[in-house]
C-alpha cells in the first residue's frame, strides 16, 4: 500500500515537481512534457516511472501514446499529513501577530 510518504519522497526531487506542476495544468504525453520542460525523453520517462510507482500519476494509452495525469489520492493524503503542521504554524503566526500588535500600542 502506498502512503503519503511515498508521494512526498517522489515529489521531493525538483524535476519531478516540475512534471507534477505541468500535469496540474493538463494531462500530457511524454512528448508534451519533453517540449514543456526542455528535457530528454529518457529523463522524463525515468521521472514519470518514479511518479507512477509512487501512485502520483497514472497513464492511459491512447493510440500510440501514454497520456499522464495526476492522481488526487496521494495529494489528499499529503494534505492530511500536513494539516497539523499548518495548524501549528497558524497558531505561531497568530501569536506573533498578537505580540507585534501589542508592541505597537
From TrEMBL:
Cited NCBIfam families: HTH_metalloreg (NF033788)
Molecular function terms, GO-annotated: DNA binding; DNA-binding transcription factor activity
Name this polypeptide is given: Transcriptional regulator
The keyword DNA-binding belongs to this UniProt entry's keyword annotation: yes
Record has Cell membrane as a keyword: no
Lineage: Bacteria, Bacillati, Actinomycetota, Actinomycetes, Micromonosporales
Domain of life: Bacteria
Keywords, ordered alphabetically: DNA-binding, Transcription, Transcription regulation
PANTHER family xref list: TRANSCRIPTIONAL REGULATOR, ARSR FAMILY, TRANSCRIPTIONAL REPRESSOR SDPR
Classification via Pfam families: HTH_5 (PF01022)
Organism: Paractinoplanes rishiriensis
UniProt domain HTH arsR-type: residue ranges: 1-90
